Amino acid sequence: MFRWAQQQLANVAGTQEPEYGPEAIQPVGKNESDPPFTEVTKADLKWLTPDTTCVETQTFYLHADNGHTVMLQVIYSNVAGLRITTQFNCKVFYPNNEKPFLWSTAPLENYGFDEDQYSFYADGVSVELSEDGSSYTIKSAADENALVDVKITRTAPGFMGGKDGVSNYGTDPKAPWGSMRHVFWPRNNIEGRVITKDGEIDLKGRAMYSFALQGMKPHHAAARWNFANFQSPTYSAVIMEFTTPSSYGSTVVRVSGIVTDGKILFANTHTGHVKHTETKADDENEWPEPTSISYKWEGKTEDGKEVHALVEGSLGPRLDRIDVMAEVPGFIKSFVATAAGTKPYIYQFGPKMTMEIQVGDETKKEDGTLFGEATFIS
């Protein structure tokens, strides 16, 4: 009962949680009966909007053929069931860092969803899922500095880890007090544009889409995150990995997979790795910023062929370092302001890298573009 009371206090006040141990998290895909992954259907793309503390996001990572990298994101945030905010973010990175990136963030008014919770609307913004569930159209006039008109169309099946993409937190698996969910469309075509004050950017190219729900305070769910989105002419590869705080035994939870046009090569929750092979101390916050990295994917195709893939090397100059407390809207601050030892920073990278991939007896190398994030929270 005392632990339950501590946990309830942590939920309200954002204080550090007690040590529950690794048995208090049920990572995605770790039940023996779970499949390694489940193919995403249209029904999996509904906004869930829990009435408790949560952050639900749709994020589109766009890799244009002309060298621009763009992130579009809708954020739905609920603080303790007391206050709901919505936000639209647009971030434009220019080829070869030829000029500083464009960052646009706009709080939204009069948000809502369609009857089936597939599409999001607010004043000046719409993110609509097509009737057949194969494409999204994203439009934003929320900020005149970044006008968005983009359509992404899925060219390979999406996946989620295990049976439903969900990791649950709590000492009673049948009554979890928190959760994490991720759904991925790794490979999509883009058509459309972003219009800035410097002109129009054609976004024809390839995209990756992530639909996520963090059903608890961010610093209670994870202490660190790693994310990789690799796009090449033939392959799209995704790794999402987080490490829980010590209150949940510093448990590593990972979902990864590789797709190609028309099919999933493999996806699972139990293989591969993310390693920061070289780091440097960040003078601003003392976090070990990665300077070289290794991403590894391992699995089996539907017909039993072994797949091994590796992307590793120098990350080059970072795209951005985000002080979450300073730059992300107020809903995050309200989550973490009272949490001792919490100083969240996100490092973003976008180097050209090479994937070495072996499928069965065939090995090849393919150049592509990585969008990676390393996040340190507590």
UniProtKB/TrEMBL annotation:
Record domain Svf1-like N-terminal: where: 55-214
Pfam families: Svf1 (PF08622), Svf1_C (PF17187)
Membrane topology summary: Peripheral membrane protein
Primary residence: cytoplasm
Gene Ontology CC entries for this record: endoplasmic reticulum membrane; Golgi apparatus; nucleus
Entry's Gene Ontology BP terms: lipid transport; response to oxidative stress
Keywords associated with the record: Cytoplasm, Endoplasmic reticulum, Golgi apparatus, Lipid transport, Membrane, Nucleus, Transport
Family the entry assigns: Belongs to the SVF1 family.
PANTHER family (UniProt xref): CERAMIDE-BINDING PROTEIN SVF1-RELATED, SVF1-LIKE PROTEIN YDR222W-RELATED
Functional note: Ceramide-binding protein that may transfer ceramides from the endoplasmic reticulum membrane to the cis-Golgi network membrane, and is thereby required for the biosynthesis of complex sphingolipids.
Protein's name according to its UniProt entry: Ceramide-binding protein SVF1
Source organism: Lentithecium fluviatile CBS 122367
Phylogenetic placement of the source organism: Eukaryota, Fungi, Dikarya, Ascomycota, Pezizomycotina
